[in-house]
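DM from R.C. (forwarded with permission)

"hey, sorry to bug you on a friday — could you get me a structure for this? deadline for the figure draft is monday and I only need the backbone to look sensible"
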Amino acid sequence: MSINKKKLTTSWGAPVGDNQNSMTAGSRGPTLIQDVHLLEKLAHFNRERVPERVVHAKGAGAHGYFEVTNDVTKYTKANFLSKVGKRTPVFIRFSTVAGELGSADTVRDPRGFAVKFYTEEGNYDLVGNNTPVFFIRDAIKFPDFIHTQKRDPKTHLKNPTAVWDFWSLSPESLHQVTILMSDRGIPATFRHMHGFGSHTFKWTNADGQGVWIKYHFKTEQGIKNLAVDVAGRLASENPDYHTEDLFYAIENGDYPSWKLCVQIMPLEDANTYRFDPFDVTKVWSQKDYPLIEVGRMVLNRNPENYFVEVEQATFSPGTLVPGIDVSPDKMLQGRLFAYHDAHRYRVGANHQMLPINRAKVEVNHYQRDGSMRFDDNGGGSVYYEPNSFSGPVESYEDKQAAYPVSGIAESAPYDHSDHYTQAGDLYRLLNDEERVRLVNNIVNAMKPVEKEEIKLRQIQHFYKADREYGKRVADGLGLSVPQEV
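My reply, with the result:
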């Protein structure tokens, strides 16, 4: 017997035809601004909580520098990467994702890894995580995903049923779920974890030639993780453990550092690679595209005031410099809007003028007024463009590189839907002790789930990635792998 379900609608009551895929020009995008449902979801989501960040609320930050160690000028014209030995000041903010401002540092959660480069061509923000992939690959699903990580609106408690219900209905999450539930789900410190740009970006050189790239920050302290019992004890005894560790490491002169590498893919390979290179739930094999060293980042100075420098720091993957462009990654395309919009709401329209966010070079534009404008507001200078009064003008040579798009404007999914191969490969890379811990973490996390059908649906995903993986989880939960799998 069919059950009449309520139609999902927009905030103005119109029915929603597709809540899984944003509207793009062809299957690879770019995302279209005419997708008013996507814009409304993201804009409303950014305004749901006041005044802390909606995500990445709990964090720590530090100042330092980035030094180029390898010539990459044949790939990008970005000025801060223009010569070996060139140093650029940076500010980095580490964070957990789902917890509130007062939550514990040692919870099982991805860690934000956001770097602001104060370059001679303006600021460049590289806003990623300590994982190379993410749970979803389309920004239209982001508000729903984060709702499952936050508190239930009725009980105001964390809701494992919502978490696993969403993941089980979103098989693209399996790769990131496997990482999260593995040993890497709880880093020992912010210093002992890698960082990733996660998305695919585009580098363009001085001749206008481009390549697709992925960023990898490799910790020079080595990877260290926390055992579940130790993490739980620290959460109660010292909930600010990671914040404290970072501060005192720098205070005592033990400066943390990372080596920055990139993977480089020729533009034409994007059409033939066995995984969609713009799908943020997938990685590129380092056998296919080896890591190329770019430089080294060192953190050597603590903030003088947490609120002024860490809490008011704003980052966006849309804060770009010439030579670095975006890709058709649908999750990235949504973040280009959502991050700047979140900062305009949380910190204010003039957040870029605050000392921690302000570029080290002269800023020239025609933006005026707005809350908390604390400079001369442009004085009596010309305030529009084009003009006949020698105001700032665009520089054609600094335009983002063009790339062709085609297709029908529709809410289109990615062409590829293999959500299991890479998750299975990751499982098989683990030794048996690591697999045991992974399965135990998953089982313990899934036990509170209220509906058995959700557990069985998720077990199917584990089983499709690797038979042993699925069977071990099923056995741990006292269930059988569904016969149809």
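R.C.: lifesaver. The longest strand covers residues 59-68.
me: no worries. The chain has twelve helices and twelve strands.
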